[in-house]
């Protein structure tokens, strides 16, 4: 849009008013989307930030199911060297938590139940369920049922889930029950509590289900406050008590606290630093307020657009948004600099026309860098891309729409001392960047960079995305060790055309897993086929018992000789042949409750089950168990995301080269093909030196380093554009334009650079790369004009 030099003040004010009204409407919409829908739309769930990596939709659904099976639940372990104190403390903890409405249910003391009632549903299926050992014994030639009966009669007293002698005289059902997960758990019912003993310590399990999502800020605060009060009480009343905890609510709260700390650190330090810089440079608080006004418009627009597109804000975006201050303020700085350099000859519309090419060209290069960032199939990075693009666009448009109406009077020139310093630095870089000397310096820098490049490595581990507190990880590991919880990040997905085929395929996997257990490569596993055998296996088991049960008189004599009463013998014989156990029936039993999430159900794509290995996280070992088995696949979400990160990290160098190739014709068209290489040299050499420095610092490259380098290219190109477009208009004040470029660079370093101190490893990588890249590029950018201007007097 062409602006006449003498655009009337009234027209500028009208446009500014309309822009301000639109900004207020966008702000109101953003506030509603963020706070007005029942909960704050800030996403602390790491799983929600990760890309979809599983090609099988059922595998991705299984990942979600496992992640949230106990996601809204606290798992607490009360520990004390005194058995009575541990149990009393657990009871008090349960009662204290149950008083708070934030918990939907709290389980410390077990509800009254009869173990016999838990066994009763299996009695009708007792002749269809055999262990591997009993199956092998019955199939062996010369099997003697009298020996099996004798072993059963001489077996020690059972205090867990067990069958009575009259219901299971040969112990077949008992053996089967002994191999079930609930029988192998280290936690045993004791005094109406779930208790484990390890060394001289007693551990009591307490669980609390939240009445809401673990990722809801209000739920987090209320639940953690309730737990803190209860914990303080039991430690006072029962000295020596220690409480371990795990659950998504603790990780989500820690992540939120870390993000809030980062936002405050980056936001406040960068805001104060930028404020001091602007006041010192422009010698008035007015430009400071206008610069932050432009930035605020960008942040408001970015937040609203992100919420409209994604429905929520990720933690990474939240912290990244605080750092966006440093880049969004660049556009207003250039307009303020043009005003300061114009002196008494200032006209708002003329100044806007003067800076417009630089701003639009800089905006285009920035949008290109962020658009490439959005190509990565990673929800958090895509949201950061949308956030940045919309924020940059709105901040730039605010310079066109708001500032001309607010900056119609001339201003004092830039502070003289920073301009002199900038001029001295510009002359020095010009001197070394001119002609053959410049080529030699560039060659020397590249030679110095070579050892750093040689030392570069990489690390694609997804766990570097967000740092999980070491204390929480240690407590989770202790709870897993004591309670026997499985590893939920790695699991097998078993699929079949129907329920029967799925269970048969899981049984084939079970045989391999059992071999791994026998060779001490695995501690165990949890799966449905061990609890609900396939119909085929049950038919085989039933057939193995038929030779014995087809001679009832022989069995009667055997049992009578062992002292069984006639009515008990008659009842047991009358139960033959019984009925096979079906999955639908088993899912309705009380003992199935903790394991129902292992059944994925059936759909048009087939049926699926989840099998959880325990005792190893070695991918190669676990993969061997699945190799060659139809319908069986190992799913490792962290590993698959890490592989995706690695693949896109390898692609990133190509993307960076593509971005350079795209910028080259734009600069060639604007500045001419002979000058274009000089304009491109500072950002490209800045990237090269950044990579070398990362190598010297032994920083393994991640996807986030490469994404930051993409932004270094965009920001560095901006500085070259600002210098080339602005210098002709500031020829009467040598050094003034470079001073404004340095001001833009320092504001970016104050915001993006502070990310290098973030609690999130991904943002630390991002911030360190930008800190180095922007610093190198800002120092090198005067060389882009070394051949087109002489040092000013």
TrEMBL record:
The keyword Cell membrane applies. Residues 66-413 form the Membrane transport protein MMPL domain. GO terms for cellular component: plasma membrane. The chain crosses the membrane at residues 12-35, 265-282, 289-309, 315-337, 358-380, 386-407, 435-454, 652-672, 679-697, 703-723, 735-754, 766-783. InterPro entries: MMPL_dom (IPR004869), Mycobact_MmpL (IPR050545). It is found in: Cell membrane. It is a multi-pass membrane protein. Keywords: Cell membrane, Membrane, Transmembrane, Transmembrane helix. Its main location: membrane. Pfam families: MMPL. This is Predicted exporter. The lineage of its organism: Bacteria, Pseudomonadati, Pseudomonadota, Gammaproteobacteria, Lysobacterales.
């Amino acid at each position: 849009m062409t602006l006449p030099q003498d655009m009337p003040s009234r027209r500028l004010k009208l446009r500014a008013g309309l822009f301000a009204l639109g900004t207020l409407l966008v702000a109101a919409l953003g506030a509603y989307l963020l706070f007005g829908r029942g909960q704050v739309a800030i996403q602390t769930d790491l799983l929600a930030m990760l890309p979809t990596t599983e090609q099988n939709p059922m595998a991705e659904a299984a990942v979600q199911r496992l992640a949230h099976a106990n996601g809204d639940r606290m798992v607490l372990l009360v520990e004390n060297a005194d058995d009575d104190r541990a149990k009393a403390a657990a009871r008090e903890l349960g009662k204290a938590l149950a008083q708070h409405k934030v918990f939907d249910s709290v389980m410390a003391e077990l509800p009254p139940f009869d173990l016999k009632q838990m066994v009763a549903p299996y009695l009708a299926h007792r002749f269809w369920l055999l262990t591997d050992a009993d199956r092998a014994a019955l199939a062996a030639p010369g099997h003697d049922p009298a020996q099996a009966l004798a072993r059963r009669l001489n077996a020690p007293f059972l205090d867990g889930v067990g069958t009575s002698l009259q219901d299971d005289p040969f112990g077949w059902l008992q053996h089967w029950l002994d191999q079930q997960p609930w029988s192998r758990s280290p936690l045993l019912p004791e005094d109406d509590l779930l208790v484990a003993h390890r060394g001289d310590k007693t551990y009591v399990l307490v669980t609390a289900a939240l009445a809401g999502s673990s990722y809801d800020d209000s739920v987090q605060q209320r639940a953690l406050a309730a737990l803190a009060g209860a914990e303080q009480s039991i430690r006072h009343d029962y000295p020596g008590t220690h409480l371990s905890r795990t659950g998504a609510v603790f990780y989500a709260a820690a992540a939120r606290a870390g993000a809030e700390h980062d936002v405050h650190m980056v936001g406040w330090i960068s805001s104060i630093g930028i404020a001091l810089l602007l006041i010192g440079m422009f010698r008035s608080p007015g430009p400071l307020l206008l610069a932050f006004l432009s930035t605020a418009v960008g942040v408001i627009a970015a937040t609203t657009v992100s919420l409209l597109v994604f429905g929520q804000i990720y933690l990474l975006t939240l912290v990244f948004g605080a750092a966006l201050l440093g880049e969004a303020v660049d556009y207003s700085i250039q307009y303020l600099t043009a005003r300061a350099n114009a002196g008494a000859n200032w006209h708002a519309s003329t100044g806007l026309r003067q800076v417009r090419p630089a701003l639009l060209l800089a905006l285009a290069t920035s949008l290109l860098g962020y658009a490439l960032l959005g190509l990565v199939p990673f929800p958090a990075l895509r949201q950061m891309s949308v956030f940045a693009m919309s924020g940059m666009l709105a901040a730039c448009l605010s310079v066109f729409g708001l500032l001309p109406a607010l900056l119609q009077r001339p201003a004092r020139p830039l502070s003289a001392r920073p301009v002199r310093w900038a001029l001295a630095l510009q002359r020095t870089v010009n001197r070394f960047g001119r002609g053959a000397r410049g080529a030699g310096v560039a060659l020397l820098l590249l030679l110095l960079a070579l050892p750093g490049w040689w030392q570069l490595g990489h690390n694609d581990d997804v766990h570097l995305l967000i740092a999980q507190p070491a204390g929480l990880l240690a407590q989770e590991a202790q709870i897993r060790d004591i309670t026997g919880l499985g590893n939920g990040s790695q699991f097998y997905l078993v699929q079949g055309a129907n329920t029967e085929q799925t269970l048969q395929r899981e049984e084939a996997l079970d045989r391999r897993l059992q071999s791994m257990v026998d060779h001490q490569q695995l501690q165990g596993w949890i799966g449905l086929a061990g609890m609900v055998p396939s119909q085929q296996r049950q038919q085989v088991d039933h057939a193995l018992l038929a030779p014995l049960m087809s001679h009832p008189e022989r069995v009667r004599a055997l049992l009578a000789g062992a002292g069984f009463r006639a009515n008990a013998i008659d009842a047991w014989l009358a139960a033959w042949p019984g009925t096979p156990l079906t999955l639908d029936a088993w899912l309705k039993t009380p003992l199935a409750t903790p394991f129902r999430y292992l059944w994925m159900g059936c759909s048009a794509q087939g049926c699926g089950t989840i099998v959880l290995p325990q005792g190893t996280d070695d991918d190669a070992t676990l993969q061997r168990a699945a190799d060659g088995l139809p319908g069986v696949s190992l799913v490792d979400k962290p590993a698959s995301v890490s592989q995706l990160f690695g693949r896109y990290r390898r692609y990133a160098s190509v993307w960076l080269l593509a971005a350079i190739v795209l910028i080259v014709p734009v600069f060639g068209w604007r500045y001419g093909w002979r000058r274009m290489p000089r304009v491109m040299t500072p950002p490209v050499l800045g990237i090269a030196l950044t990579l070398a420095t990362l190598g010297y610092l032994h920083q393994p490259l991640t996807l986030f380093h490469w994404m930051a380098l993409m932004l270094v290219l965009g920001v560095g190109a901006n500085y070259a554009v600002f210098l080339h477009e602005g210098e002709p208009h500031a020829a009467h004040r040598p050094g003034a334009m470079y001073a404004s470029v340095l001001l833009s660079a320092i504001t970016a370093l104050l915001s993006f650079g502070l990310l290098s101190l973030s609690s999130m490893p991904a943002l630390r990588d991002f911030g360190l790369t930008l800190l180095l890249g922007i610093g190198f590029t800002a120092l090198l950018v005067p060389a882009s004009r070394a051949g087109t201007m002489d040092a000013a007097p």
